[in-house]
């Protein structure tokens, strides 16, 4: 966490930097200025998504507070009184939010910038390695993705994948699918081969994150019961 000394003043200022990933704050006293910031190891901005930040400065009118950002290719925009939105573009451990009161620097808080984690693929919300009834599988229309225990609602676009299922002779039948939906060939194999005792594998899964970056997802498989 970056700490800077500021000239003593008569107004006590409290600054609260609360990105949506932050849970608690700590207090730093410098002269008569008190700055409240979240623990450094939780201060993270993510590339490709909106990172909301709340800020409160006691003793200062909202119109007198301005915010800037440096590092990580960041930009900051005010969305409402005391609320800002941060967008970042490159990974760094040195992204700084600067808060000014009446044009004078009142506080600085350090953030890390990280890429979004790679999501997990799923069919119908079932976890990879699990068992799916054959009838339930046949109602599915394609492959989705999700980020487990992630604080943002992030939408990934599935660009394509390969569907694979073993037939009655133990041979693997496969069909390439574009986008997130099963292709006509995959649907045919689902109707013909997805039965109790078979295994379905989805591999070569490609997706695009909100920034437009293409990522490869881990393969998933299901036991059909």
Any chance you could write out the topology, listing elements then pairs?
Blueprint: E1 16-19, E2 26-30, E3 33-37, E4 44-46, E5 51-54, E6 65-70, E7 75-80, E8 83-87, E9 92-101, E10 104-114, E11 120-122, E12 131-132, H1 134-138, E13 144-146, E14 157-166, E15 172-178, H2 184-193, E16 199-208, E17 214-217, E18 220-224
Parallel strand pairs: 1-3, 4-10, 12-18
Antiparallel strand pairs: 1-5, 2-3, 5-8, 6-9, 7-8, 9-10, 11-13, 14-15, 14-16, 16-17, 16-18
Q: Work out the count of structural domains.
A: 2
Count up the helices: 2
Question: What is the terminal separation in angstroms?
Answer: 53 Å
Q: Average pLDDT value?
A: 82
The neighbouring-strand order within the major sheet is: 2-3-1-5-8-7
Query: How much helical structure, as a percent, in the residues?
Result: under 10%
By secondary-structure content and strand pairing, the structural class works out as mainly beta
Strand content: over 45%
Shape: elongated
Concise structural overview:
The chain is mainly beta.
Considering the chains and any ligands shown, give keywords for the structure.
225 residues; mainly beta; Immunoglobulin-like; six-stranded mixed beta sheet; 7% helix; 46% strand; disordered N terminus
Describe the structure.
- Strand 9 and strand 10 (104-114) form a beta hairpin.
- This protein has helices at 134-138, 184-193; strands at residues 16-19, 26-30, 33-37, 44-46, 51-54, 65-70, 75-80, 83-87, 92-101, 104-114, 120-122, 131-132, 144-146, 157-166, 172-178, 199-208, 214-217, 220-224.
- It folds into 2 domains: 16-114, Immunoglobulin-like (Sandwich), CATH 2.60.40; 120-224, no CATH class.
- It is 7% helix and 46% strand.
- The strands form 4 sheets. Strands 2-3-1-5-8-7 form a 6-stranded mixed beta sheet, with no helix packed on it. Strands 12, 14, 15, 16, 17 and 18 form a 6-stranded mixed beta sheet that branches. A 4-stranded mixed beta sheet has the order 4-10-9-6, with no helix packed on it.
- It is built from 2 helices and 18 strands.
- By secondary structure, it is mainly β.
């Amino acid at each position: 966490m970056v700490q800077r000394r500021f000239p003593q003043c008569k107004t006590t200022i409290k600054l609260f930097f609360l990105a949506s990933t932050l849970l608690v704050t700590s207090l730093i006293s410098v002269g008569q200025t008190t700055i409240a910031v979240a623990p450094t190891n939780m201060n993270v901005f993510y590339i490709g998504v909106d990172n909301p930040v709340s800020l409160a400065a006691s003793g200062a009118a909202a119109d007198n507070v301005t915010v800037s950002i440096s590092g990580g290719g960041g930009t900051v925009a005010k969305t409402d009184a005391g609320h800002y939105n941060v967008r970042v573009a490159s990974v760094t451990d040195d992204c700084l939010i600067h808060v000014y009161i009446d044009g004078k620097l009142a506080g600085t808080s350090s953030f890390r910038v990280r890429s979004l984690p790679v999501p997990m693929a799923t069919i119908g919300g079932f976890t990879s390695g699990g068992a799916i009834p054959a009838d339930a599988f046949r109602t599915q229309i394609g492959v989705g993705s999700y980020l487990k225990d992630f604080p943002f609602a992030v939408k990934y676009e599935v660009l394509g994948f390969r569907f694979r299922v073993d037939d009655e002779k133990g041979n693997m039948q496969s069909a390439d699918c574009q986008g997130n939906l099963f292709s006509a060939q995959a649907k045919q194999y689902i109707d013909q081969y997805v039965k109790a005792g078979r295994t379905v594998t989805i591999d070569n899964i490609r997706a695009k994150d909100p920034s437009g970056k293409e990522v490869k997802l881990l393969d998933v498989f299901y036991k059909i019961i």
